[in-house]
Amino acid sequence: MTPSILAYEQGYAIHVNEPGDSLFYHLDYDERSHELNMEFQHFHDFYEICILLDRTAAHIIEGSLYEIQPYDIVLLRPSLLHKTQYPKGMPPKRLIITFAMPRNIPGLDSGYTELFSIFDEPIPIFRFTEELRQAVMAPLNEIFYLSQNPSVLHSVAIHSKFVEFLCTIHRYSAENSYVREETGSSMSQRMYTIASYIHSHYQNELSLEEISKRFFVSAHHLSRQFNRVTGFTFTEYIQMTRIRNAQQMLLNSNKKITDIAAQCGFASFSQFNRIFNKLNGMSPSTYRRSRQSQSEREMISSGRPDR
After folding, report:
1. Which domain holds residue 257?
2. Assigned domain for 159 exists
3. Between vectors from CA 220 to CA 215 and to CA 222, what angle results, nearest 5°?
4. What is the rounded distance in angstroms from the CA atom of residue 19 to the CA atom of residue 148?
5. How far is CA 147 from CA 14, 25, 198, 299, in A?
6. CATH number of the structural domain spanning residue 237
7. How open is the CA angle 29-35-39, to the nearest 5 degrees?
8. H/E run at residue 191
9. Which of 93, 103, 172 is nearest to 137 (CA)?
């Protein structure tokens, strides 16, 4: 691995427009300490790309654990629950890109739909050979140097190079060599499999007894090991997953709150309301009115997205 593959300056940031605009970019070059790992998975209403520059880390997407290496490219579409777990020791360097862009450009809408299909891959992580990596990262390096010598065409040039970056990933997507590796103990692997199952079936009634039978582990052992691996009790994890998905629906749909509660697997509206208040400090209706992307916009505007 050579540092020149991707230009980097710790603490450097590149901005084009503001979060919430129909087109914006925020490129954050920095380190991330293990002590700042997020407690639970989060989501936002813009796209995110994570590129690790050194060491290794783990990315959890919808409850599934993926090991990432330097220069792996993690693509995250809006409203996808995820978090990164950074290792103990020296903070790894990484580039986090958050962005939005209009895709309904007359004459180009079908092309943009195809371009953004890379974000919909079953495993949206790309790993290339060193030769292809140089080609994929080249537009990002040009963005880095363009930002240091701004001109009247600064924003247009960055947008153009970023589209080129996405096009290059798409062009070489068939050469993606990322394979999900089974890491850790067999019991830890089973707990992440169960977490992933919860994310896929949170709308249904879930019980410790049913899951323990499905995954051939005693209920007592599952409860203890699930807490050890995820940091949450089995019930807490289900509640957090349901609430996060309810938050997405509140922000991104006009569905009735009672319907959202039922669709997210809550037995009653009163249960939903109580747990939502407990985890968010406000009612679902207040959240819908006052939190339309506000927290995520403030997070990006602060210059240190919490990931």
Report:
1. 186-293
2. yes
3. 35
4. 21
5. 7, 12, 43, 22
6. 1.10.10.60
7. 100
8. helix 186-201
9. 172
Point out the domain boundary residue: 175, 206, 227. 175
Whether residue 164 sits in one domain with residue 104? yes
Question: Are residues 173 and 118 in contact, defined by beta-carbon separation less than 8 angstroms?
Answer: yes
Phi, psi angles (nearest 5°) of residue 84: -110, 135
CA dist., res. 20 & res. 168, Å (int): 26
Count Cβ atoms within 10 A of the Cβ of residue 181 and give its class: 0-12 exposed, 13-18 middle, 19 or more buried: exposed
CB 18 within 8 A of CB 25: no
Angle between helices 186-201 and 219-230 (to 10 degrees): 90
**Radius of gyration, alpha carbons of the chain:** 20
* Beta pairing class for 93-100 and 64-68: unpaired
Using DSSP's 3-state secondary structure scheme, residue 104 falls into coil
The token pair that represents 174 in the structure block: 């068939």
Contacts of 149 (CB under 8 A, 6+ apart): none
pLDDT in tens, the chain (307 residues): 344 699 999 999 999 999 889 999 999 999 876 655 566 778 888 999 999 998 888 888 988 889 999 999 999 998 888 888 888 888 889 999 999 999 888 899 999 999 999 999 999 999 999 999 999 999 999 999 999 988 899 999 999 999 999 999 999 999 999 988 766 568 888 898 999 999 999 999 999 999 999 999 999 999 999 998 888 899 999 999 999 999 989 988 899 999 999 999 999 999 999 999 999 899 999 999 876 555 444 444 444 444 4
- For 163, counting Cβ atoms within 10 Å of its Cβ (0-12 exposed, 13-18 middle, 19+ buried), the class is middle
Last residue within a domain, chosen from 135, 151, 175: 175
Q: Are 24 and 17 in contact (CB under 8 A)?
A: yes
Six-digit token string for 171: 């062009």
* Entry field: residues in the chain: 307
Contact in structure between 7 and 27 (CB atoms under 8 Å): no
